Amino acid sequence: MRPFSGRLALVTGSTSGIGLAIARALAAEGADIVLNGFGDPAAIEALREDLANEASVRVRYVGADLARPSEIEDMMREIEGELGGIDILVNNAGIQHVAPVHEFPPERWDAVLAVNLSACFHTIRLALPSMLRRNFGRIVNIASVHGLVASVHKAAYVAAKHGLVGLTKVVALETAGTGVTCNAICPGWVRTPLVERQIEARAVREGVDGETAARALLAEKQPSQRFVEPEHIAALAVFLCSPAAAEIRGATLTIDGGWTAQ
Ligand code: NAD
Q1: What confidence category does residue 88 fall into, taking pLDDT thresholds of 50, 70 and 90?
Q2: Hey, what CATH topology would domain 8-188+229-256 get?
Q3: How many Å apart are CA 62 and CA 241, to the nearest integer?
């Protein structure tokens, strides 16, 4: 028996980056996994099969677009109807858009808020009733250092992540007397496709190569001068799902190479 055998985990945005690392780590501990996110269907199917074989767990993929509340409702109904109640909910899907606030396209604002904040409200409200009935649940929200501090040109992302930290605290208070916990992880720079796009934009803007742009990005914010590894975030998520974390409630746990210690 592995620690999470018999548990069912939904990890949103798990076809890439941090979410995929979290799905892998939870599966390695024995949890059945629901993958979600965008990507090439054949590549996602290969990923699903690999994960199921490598960890000997059930892995299902649901391609819901989390910007659409109706697709979230369908996804949650499908999971509960076919696989049972969700024990572990990791709200990880996220998008970024970088622009000064007076040039920020309103439709990008709406999209960032929808995926990074509203989707988390919807998955939580739909997963909680069965968690409360069974008196067990772990909700892990992947926020960001940008849930705690700001940077220029990220109005929607910073607003959404601050909102997610607030939502985390409310859910933690409302579930404080139960076996359900809700916490947020706040990573600094992690070198995933989401950040790779920012590195590329910086390289073009400054007329430098990618590695020089990556070093400049770190130098600005992250005292360690190193990227955080997706696997480190996954290990923290696994810990938050363990019995030892039963009384960690409403916490914002940074894993940011010292970013917010400055
Ligand atoms: P990523 O781009 O590698 O992965 C994002 C995932 O979300 C992908 O699987 C993508 O398909 C999915 N996704 C995007 N829009 C979606 C939608 N509408 N519906 C369903 N799925 C959708 O990015 P990542 O860096 O791994 O980011 C994961 C989370 O970590 C995000 O919430 C991000 O804000 C947060 N984060 C990342 C960093 C970093 O430096 N990379 C730092 C702090 C926080």
Answers
A1: very high
A2: Rossmann fold (3.40.50)
A3: 22
What stretch(es) of the chain map to CATH 3.40.50.720? 8-188+229-256
Residue 243 is given by DSSP the state G
Residue with tokens 């892990």, as numbered in its chain = 140
Q: What is the mean pLDDT of residues 215-232?
A: 97
Residue to mutate (ligand 1; options 107, 149, 194; most atoms within 8 A of CB): 194
Catalytic residue among 4, 157, 227, 259: 157
What tokens were used for 164?
A: 């997610």
* Cα–ligand 1 centroid distance for 192 (angstroms): 8
Residues with CB under 6 A from ligand 1: 13-19, 36-39, 65-67, 92-95, 115-116, 142, 144, 187, 189-190, 192-195
- What is the predicted pLDDT for the residue at 1? 85
Mean pLDDT of the chain: 98
The percentage of residues in the chain with a pLDDT greater than 90, rounded to a whole number, is 100
Dump pLDDT digits (tens) for 229-255.
999 999 999 999 999 999 999 999 999
Phi, psi of 225 (to 5 degrees): 60, 20
> What is the largest distance, in Å, between two alpha-carbon atoms of the chain?
57
Q: What is the mean pLDDT of residues 250-262?
A: 98
157 is catalytic: yes
For residue 36, give the amino acid letter.
Answer: N
* Beta-carbon contacts of residue 185 (< 8 Å; ≥ 6 apart): 140, 141, 142, 143, 233, 236, 237, 240, 253, 255
